[in-house]
Protein backbone atom coordinates (compact mmCIF):
# COMPACT_ATOMS: atom_id res chain seq x y z
CA UNK A 1 0.00 0.00 0.00
CA UNK A 2 1.07 3.57 -0.58
CA UNK A 3 1.31 5.89 2.42
CA UNK A 4 -1.97 7.68 2.98
CA UNK A 5 -1.42 11.44 3.00
CA UNK A 6 -3.60 14.30 1.97
CA UNK A 7 -2.33 17.69 0.85
CA UNK A 8 -2.07 20.21 3.65
CA UNK A 9 -1.11 20.43 7.36
CA UNK A 10 2.61 21.27 7.15
CA UNK A 11 4.09 19.35 10.10
CA UNK A 12 2.12 16.18 9.32
CA UNK A 13 3.21 16.37 5.68
CA UNK A 14 6.85 16.89 6.72
CA UNK A 15 6.88 13.93 9.10
CA UNK A 16 5.17 11.68 6.57
CA UNK A 17 7.61 12.66 3.84
CA UNK A 18 10.57 11.86 6.11
CA UNK A 19 9.09 8.44 6.91
CA UNK A 20 8.41 7.72 3.22
CA UNK A 21 11.96 8.61 2.21
CA UNK A 22 13.40 6.47 5.02
CA UNK A 23 11.38 3.48 3.85
CA UNK A 24 12.27 3.80 0.14
CA UNK A 25 14.18 0.85 -1.32
CA UNK A 26 16.94 2.70 -3.18
CA UNK A 27 20.72 2.69 -3.06
CA UNK A 28 21.87 6.18 -2.02
CA UNK A 29 19.95 7.74 -4.90
CA UNK A 30 20.81 11.01 -6.54
CA UNK A 31 17.48 12.65 -7.30
CA UNK A 32 16.43 16.17 -8.24
CA UNK A 33 14.50 18.19 -5.69
CA UNK A 34 10.73 17.89 -5.95
CA UNK A 35 7.97 20.01 -4.51
CA UNK A 36 6.76 16.80 -2.83
CA UNK A 37 6.84 13.04 -3.33
CA UNK A 38 3.92 11.90 -5.50
CA UNK A 39 3.82 8.70 -3.45
CA UNK A 40 3.31 10.64 -0.25
CA UNK A 41 0.75 12.96 -1.81
CA UNK A 42 -1.60 10.13 -2.71
CA UNK A 43 -3.42 7.25 -1.04
CA UNK A 44 -2.83 4.45 -3.57
CA UNK A 45 -2.45 3.80 -7.27
CA UNK A 46 -5.09 5.00 -9.72
CA UNK A 47 -7.28 2.38 -11.41
CA UNK A 48 -8.31 3.60 -14.85
CA UNK A 49 -11.98 2.67 -15.36
CA UNK A 50 -11.47 3.01 -19.10
CA UNK A 51 -8.41 0.82 -19.55
CA UNK A 52 -8.61 -1.51 -22.54
CA UNK A 53 -9.39 -4.64 -20.47
CA UNK A 54 -11.94 -2.80 -18.32
CA UNK A 55 -13.62 -1.37 -21.40
CA UNK A 56 -13.68 -4.75 -23.13
CA UNK A 57 -15.20 -6.43 -20.06
CA UNK A 58 -17.83 -3.72 -19.76
CA UNK A 59 -18.76 -3.90 -23.43
CA UNK A 60 -18.84 -7.73 -23.49
CA UNK A 61 -20.54 -8.49 -20.19
CA UNK A 62 -22.24 -11.54 -21.67
CA UNK A 63 -18.94 -13.16 -22.59
CA UNK A 64 -17.94 -15.84 -20.04
CA UNK A 65 -14.42 -14.36 -19.94
CA UNK A 66 -15.54 -10.85 -19.02
CA UNK A 67 -15.92 -11.24 -15.26
CA UNK A 68 -12.52 -12.93 -14.90
CA UNK A 69 -10.80 -10.32 -17.03
CA UNK A 70 -12.34 -7.48 -15.05
CA UNK A 71 -11.55 -9.07 -11.69
CA UNK A 72 -7.98 -10.08 -12.49
CA UNK A 73 -6.90 -7.24 -14.81
CA UNK A 74 -9.45 -4.48 -15.39
CA UNK A 75 -9.82 -3.70 -11.68
CA UNK A 76 -6.04 -3.33 -11.16
CA UNK A 77 -3.81 -0.24 -11.46
CA UNK A 78 -2.32 -0.24 -14.97
CA UNK A 79 -0.27 2.45 -16.71
CA UNK A 80 -1.90 4.39 -19.52
CA UNK A 81 0.15 4.86 -22.69
CA UNK A 82 0.04 8.19 -24.54
CA UNK A 83 1.02 8.61 -28.18
CA UNK A 84 0.46 11.13 -30.94
CA UNK A 85 -2.38 13.45 -29.95
CA UNK A 86 -2.88 17.03 -31.12
CA UNK A 87 -4.52 17.79 -27.77
CA UNK A 88 -2.04 15.88 -25.61
CA UNK A 89 -1.87 18.59 -22.94
CA UNK A 90 -5.60 18.47 -22.36
CA UNK A 91 -5.73 14.66 -22.57
CA UNK A 92 -3.01 14.28 -19.96
CA UNK A 93 -4.45 17.01 -17.74
CA UNK A 94 -7.84 15.30 -17.73
CA UNK A 95 -6.33 11.91 -16.91
CA UNK A 96 -4.04 13.16 -14.16
CA UNK A 97 -6.89 15.30 -12.87
CA UNK A 98 -9.24 12.32 -12.63
CA UNK A 99 -6.65 10.49 -10.54
CA UNK A 100 -5.96 13.55 -8.41
CA UNK A 101 -9.67 13.94 -7.75
CA UNK A 102 -9.62 10.49 -6.13
CA UNK A 103 -6.34 11.18 -4.28
CA UNK A 104 -4.71 8.40 -6.34
CA UNK A 105 -1.38 8.13 -8.16
CA UNK A 106 -1.58 7.66 -11.95
CA UNK A 107 1.13 5.97 -14.00
CA UNK A 108 1.59 7.41 -17.48
CA UNK A 109 3.80 6.26 -20.35
CA UNK A 110 5.15 8.82 -22.80
CA UNK A 111 5.41 6.85 -26.06
CA UNK A 112 5.73 9.13 -29.06
CA UNK A 113 9.42 9.37 -29.97
CA UNK A 114 9.99 9.56 -33.77
CA UNK A 115 10.99 6.16 -35.12
CA UNK A 116 9.26 4.42 -32.24
CA UNK A 117 9.99 0.67 -31.98
CA UNK A 118 12.56 1.07 -34.75
CA UNK A 119 14.12 -2.36 -34.21
CA UNK A 120 11.00 -4.57 -34.07
CA UNK A 121 8.58 -2.38 -36.01
CA UNK A 122 5.35 -3.77 -34.53
CA UNK A 123 4.60 -0.55 -32.60
CA UNK A 124 6.04 1.87 -35.12
CA UNK A 125 4.97 5.47 -35.34
CA UNK A 126 5.58 8.44 -33.12
CA UNK A 127 5.85 12.16 -33.73
CA UNK A 128 6.62 13.25 -37.26
CA UNK A 129 9.78 15.20 -36.44
CA UNK A 130 12.04 16.15 -33.54
CA UNK A 131 10.41 19.57 -33.32
CA UNK A 132 6.96 17.99 -33.22
CA UNK A 133 8.13 15.69 -30.44
CA UNK A 134 9.48 18.59 -28.42
CA UNK A 135 6.14 20.35 -28.69
CA UNK A 136 4.33 17.16 -27.73
CA UNK A 137 6.43 16.29 -24.67
CA UNK A 138 6.38 19.88 -23.45
CA UNK A 139 2.57 19.83 -23.58
CA UNK A 140 2.53 16.37 -21.98
CA UNK A 141 4.54 17.62 -19.01
CA UNK A 142 2.50 20.81 -18.73
CA UNK A 143 -0.68 18.73 -18.69
CA UNK A 144 0.52 16.98 -15.54
CA UNK A 145 1.59 20.25 -13.95
CA UNK A 146 1.64 20.09 -10.16
CA UNK A 147 -0.55 17.00 -9.95
CA UNK A 148 1.13 13.85 -8.53
CA UNK A 149 2.14 11.32 -11.19
CA UNK A 150 4.60 8.64 -12.25
CA UNK A 151 5.87 8.78 -15.85
CA UNK A 152 7.78 6.14 -17.82
CA UNK A 153 9.69 7.89 -20.61
CA UNK A 154 9.74 6.23 -24.03
CA UNK A 155 10.03 2.45 -23.62
CA UNK A 156 12.75 0.88 -25.80
CA UNK A 157 13.99 4.26 -27.06
CA UNK A 158 17.51 3.91 -25.66
CA UNK A 159 17.81 0.27 -26.73
CA UNK A 160 16.61 1.26 -30.19
CA UNK A 161 19.82 3.25 -30.71
CA UNK A 162 21.33 -0.05 -31.86
CA UNK A 163 19.26 0.19 -35.03
CA UNK A 164 20.19 3.81 -35.88
CA UNK A 165 22.92 5.76 -37.58
CA UNK A 166 25.10 7.98 -35.39
CA UNK A 167 23.21 11.06 -36.56
CA UNK A 168 19.90 9.46 -35.64
CA UNK A 169 21.29 8.44 -32.26
CA UNK A 170 22.41 11.96 -31.45
CA UNK A 171 19.04 13.32 -32.52
CA UNK A 172 17.14 10.84 -30.33
CA UNK A 173 19.35 11.45 -27.31
CA UNK A 174 18.68 15.16 -27.70
CA UNK A 175 14.93 14.55 -27.70
CA UNK A 176 15.11 12.38 -24.60
CA UNK A 177 17.25 14.96 -22.82
CA UNK A 178 14.62 17.58 -23.64
CA UNK A 179 11.90 15.27 -22.30
CA UNK A 180 13.67 14.94 -18.96
CA UNK A 181 14.10 18.69 -18.79
CA UNK A 182 10.43 19.35 -19.48
CA UNK A 183 9.26 16.89 -16.84
CA UNK A 184 11.71 18.35 -14.34
CA UNK A 185 10.57 21.91 -15.03
CA UNK A 186 6.86 21.53 -15.67
CA UNK A 187 5.83 18.53 -13.53
CA UNK A 188 7.45 19.10 -10.12
CA UNK A 189 5.39 16.44 -8.30
CA UNK A 190 6.15 13.71 -10.84
CA UNK A 191 8.55 10.79 -10.49
CA UNK A 192 9.85 10.27 -14.04
CA UNK A 193 11.86 7.23 -15.13
CA UNK A 194 13.80 6.82 -18.38
CA UNK A 195 13.33 3.36 -19.80
CA UNK A 196 16.41 1.12 -19.69
CA UNK A 197 15.15 -1.98 -21.49
CA UNK A 198 15.41 -5.39 -19.83
CA UNK A 199 17.87 -7.89 -18.41
CA UNK A 200 18.27 -9.73 -21.71
CA UNK A 201 18.80 -6.86 -24.11
CA UNK A 202 21.52 -4.21 -23.81
CA UNK A 203 24.63 -4.50 -21.63
CA UNK A 204 24.28 -2.62 -18.35
CA UNK A 205 27.39 -0.54 -19.04
CA UNK A 206 26.03 0.55 -22.43
CA UNK A 207 22.58 1.45 -21.16
CA UNK A 208 24.06 3.36 -18.22
CA UNK A 209 26.08 5.50 -20.60
CA UNK A 210 22.97 6.18 -22.68
CA UNK A 211 20.92 7.05 -19.60
CA UNK A 212 23.52 9.63 -18.68
CA UNK A 213 23.42 11.20 -22.14
CA UNK A 214 19.62 11.22 -22.09
CA UNK A 215 19.44 13.28 -18.89
CA UNK A 216 18.79 10.85 -16.08
CA UNK A 217 20.29 13.41 -13.71
CA UNK A 218 17.20 15.57 -14.31
CA UNK A 219 14.65 13.00 -13.14
CA UNK A 220 13.95 10.33 -10.53
CA UNK A 221 15.48 7.25 -12.14
CA UNK A 222 14.93 4.50 -14.70
CA UNK A 223 12.55 1.65 -15.55
CA UNK A 224 13.28 -1.95 -16.52
CA UNK A 225 11.39 -4.91 -17.99
CA UNK A 226 8.69 -2.78 -19.64
CA UNK A 227 6.53 -5.06 -21.79
CA UNK A 228 8.82 -8.00 -21.02
CA UNK A 229 8.76 -11.10 -18.83
CA UNK A 230 11.95 -11.38 -16.79
CA UNK A 231 11.62 -12.38 -13.15
CA UNK A 232 11.63 -9.47 -10.73
CA UNK A 233 14.82 -10.85 -9.19
CA UNK A 234 16.54 -10.81 -12.60
CA UNK A 235 15.41 -7.24 -13.16
CA UNK A 236 16.72 -6.16 -9.76
CA UNK A 237 20.12 -7.68 -10.55
CA UNK A 238 20.19 -5.94 -13.93
CA UNK A 239 19.11 -2.58 -12.49
CA UNK A 240 21.72 -2.78 -9.76
CA UNK A 241 24.34 -3.46 -12.42
CA UNK A 242 23.17 -0.41 -14.37
CA UNK A 243 23.49 1.62 -11.18
CA UNK A 244 27.06 0.43 -10.67
CA UNK A 245 27.97 1.94 -14.04
CA UNK A 246 26.01 5.14 -13.48
CA UNK A 247 28.38 5.99 -10.66
CA UNK A 248 25.64 7.52 -8.54
CA UNK A 249 22.77 5.09 -8.01
CA UNK A 250 19.25 6.06 -9.06
CA UNK A 251 15.90 4.61 -8.00
CA UNK A 252 14.34 2.18 -10.47
CA UNK A 253 10.94 0.66 -11.17
CA UNK A 254 10.09 -2.75 -12.63
CA UNK A 255 7.23 -3.78 -14.90
CA UNK A 256 5.70 -6.89 -13.32
CA UNK A 257 2.58 -7.05 -15.48
CA UNK A 258 3.48 -10.34 -17.19
CA UNK A 259 6.45 -11.80 -15.30
CA UNK A 260 4.63 -14.27 -13.06
CA UNK A 261 6.44 -17.19 -14.74
CA UNK A 262 9.63 -15.47 -15.82
CA UNK A 263 10.88 -14.90 -19.35
CA UNK A 264 10.00 -18.05 -21.28
CA UNK A 265 10.38 -18.33 -25.04
CA UNK A 266 10.51 -15.04 -26.94
CA UNK A 267 9.18 -11.55 -26.33
CA UNK A 268 6.18 -11.30 -28.68
CA UNK A 269 3.03 -12.80 -27.12
CA UNK A 270 4.90 -15.91 -25.94
CA UNK A 271 2.92 -18.83 -24.47
CA UNK A 272 2.99 -19.89 -20.86
CA UNK A 273 3.41 -16.44 -19.30
CA UNK A 274 1.44 -15.18 -16.30
CA UNK A 275 0.36 -12.02 -14.50
CA UNK A 276 2.91 -10.74 -11.97
CA UNK A 277 2.36 -8.99 -8.66
CA UNK A 278 0.19 -5.91 -8.85
CA UNK A 279 1.44 -2.36 -8.34
CA UNK A 280 3.15 -1.67 -5.03
CA UNK A 281 5.93 0.31 -3.42
CA UNK A 282 9.08 -1.60 -2.58
CA UNK A 283 9.56 -5.24 -3.52
CA UNK A 284 13.24 -4.74 -4.31
CA UNK A 285 12.66 -1.61 -6.37
CA UNK A 286 11.18 1.78 -5.70
CA UNK A 287 7.98 0.63 -7.38
CA UNK A 288 6.64 -2.54 -8.97
CA UNK A 289 4.16 -1.52 -11.66
CA UNK A 290 1.93 -2.91 -14.35
CA UNK A 291 3.31 -0.81 -17.20
CA UNK A 292 2.30 -3.03 -20.11
CA UNK A 293 -1.45 -3.65 -20.19
CA UNK A 294 -2.01 -7.41 -19.79
CA UNK A 295 -3.96 -8.74 -22.74
CA UNK A 296 -2.69 -6.09 -25.16
CA UNK A 297 -0.83 -7.65 -28.07
CA UNK A 298 2.88 -7.13 -28.70
CA UNK A 299 2.22 -7.51 -32.41
CA UNK A 300 0.81 -10.07 -34.87
CA UNK A 301 2.94 -12.90 -33.56
CA UNK A 302 3.23 -15.67 -31.00
CA UNK A 303 -0.09 -16.72 -29.49
CA UNK A 304 -1.91 -13.83 -31.23
CA UNK A 305 -0.75 -14.04 -34.86
CA UNK A 306 -3.64 -11.90 -36.13
CA UNK A 307 -3.75 -9.21 -33.42
CA UNK A 308 -1.91 -5.96 -34.16
CA UNK A 309 0.32 -4.33 -31.56
CA UNK A 310 -1.65 -2.25 -29.07
CA UNK A 311 -4.95 -4.09 -29.54
CA UNK A 312 -6.60 -5.90 -26.65
CA UNK A 313 -7.19 -9.63 -27.11
CA UNK A 314 -9.32 -11.42 -24.47
CA UNK A 315 -7.64 -14.74 -25.21
CA UNK A 316 -4.24 -13.22 -24.44
CA UNK A 317 -5.71 -11.87 -21.21
CA UNK A 318 -7.12 -15.18 -20.06
CA UNK A 319 -3.87 -16.97 -20.94
CA UNK A 320 -2.06 -14.56 -18.61
CA UNK A 321 -4.64 -15.14 -15.88
CA UNK A 322 -4.24 -18.92 -16.17
CA UNK A 323 -0.54 -18.99 -16.96
CA UNK A 324 -1.00 -20.96 -20.18
From TrEMBL:
Listed InterPro entries: Beta_cellobiohydrolase, Beta_cellobiohydrolase_sf
Record-annotated active site: 156, 298
Binding site for substrate: 81, 201, 228, 267, 292
Catalytic class of the enzyme: hydrolase
UniProt keyword annotations, A-Z: Carbohydrate metabolism, Cellulose degradation, Glycosidase, Hydrolase, Polysaccharide degradation, Signal
Coiled coil ranges: none
This enzyme's EC code(s): 3.2.1.-
GO MF term (any one): hydrolase activity, hydrolyzing O-glycosyl compounds
Signal peptide: 1-35
GO biological process: cellulose catabolic process
Gene3D superfamilies reported for this sequence: 1, 4-beta cellobiohydrolase (3.20.20.40)
Top-level taxon: Bacteria
Similarity comment text for this entry: Belongs to the glycosyl hydrolase family 6.
The protein's name in its UniProt record: Glucanase
Amino acid sequence: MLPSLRKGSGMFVLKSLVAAVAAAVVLLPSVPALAASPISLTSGFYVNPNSLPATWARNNSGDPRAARIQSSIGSKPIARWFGNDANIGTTVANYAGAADGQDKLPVLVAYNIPGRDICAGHSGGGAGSPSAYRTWISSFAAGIGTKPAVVIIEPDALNGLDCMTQAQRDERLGMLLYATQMLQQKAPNTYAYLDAGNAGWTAASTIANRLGQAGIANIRGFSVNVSNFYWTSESITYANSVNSYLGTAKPFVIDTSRNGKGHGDGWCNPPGRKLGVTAQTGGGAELLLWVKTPGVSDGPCGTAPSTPAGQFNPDLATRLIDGT
